[in-house]
């Protein structure tokens, strides 16, 4: 039992990660990854990254692994009102703030549609 306890202490995460308070929920992340996977199947994106800070969670989508992000989805908490806001930055153009992630993803899917 002592050996097991020592292993668990060495696996513990960095304190800065444990102090993070805002994450994507399982449902939100599932919706984001569904949108991302449709972009991957069309050849739009090839890589993604997720970053968590104290008052925001960020999902980056990349055209190439070494390029700057093509699309940035941000979930952040307003400090004064304690409400959650979603933001979309697509092709270096900042979009409006959204209160629901579904509204943000509808706009993102609309931007990704290609007429053949």
Task: Sum up the structure in keywords.
116 residues, alpha+beta, 28% strand, disordered N terminus
Word description of this protein:
The structure is a single chain. The relative contact order is 0.13. The protein is built from four helices and five strands, in the order H-H-H-E-E-E-E-E-H. A five-stranded antiparallel sheet has the order 1-2-3-4-5, covered by helices on one side. Helices cover 36% and strands 28% of the residues. With 116 residues, it is an alpha+beta fold.
Short description:
The protein has helices spanning 2-11, 15-18, 26-41, 101-112, and strands at residues 47-52, 56-62, 71-77, 84-90, 93-98.
**Biggest β-sheet: strands ordered side by side in the sheet:** 1-2-3-4-5
Most strands sheet: 5 strands, antiparallel
Structural class: alpha+beta
Oligomer: single chain
Topology:
Layout: H1 2-11, H2 15-18, H3 26-41, E1 47-52, E2 56-62, E3 71-77, E4 84-90, E5 93-98, H4 101-112
Antiparallel strand pairs: 1-2, 2-3, 3-4, 4-5
């Amino acid at each position: 039992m002592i050996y097991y306890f020592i292993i668990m202490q060495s696996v513990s995460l960095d304190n800065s990660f444990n102090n993070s308070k805002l994450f994507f929920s399982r449902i939100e992340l599932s919706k984001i990854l569904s949108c991302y996977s449709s972009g991957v199947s069309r050849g739009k994106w090839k890589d993604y990254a997720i970053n968590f800070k104290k008052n925001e969670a960020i999902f980056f989508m990349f055209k190439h692994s070494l390029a700057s992000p093509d699309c940035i989805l941000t979930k952040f908490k307003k400090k004064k009102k304690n409400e959650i806001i979603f933001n979309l930055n697509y092709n270096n153009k900042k979009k409006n703030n959204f209160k629901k992630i579904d509204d943000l993803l509808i706009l993102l899917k609309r931007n990704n549609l290609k007429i053949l």
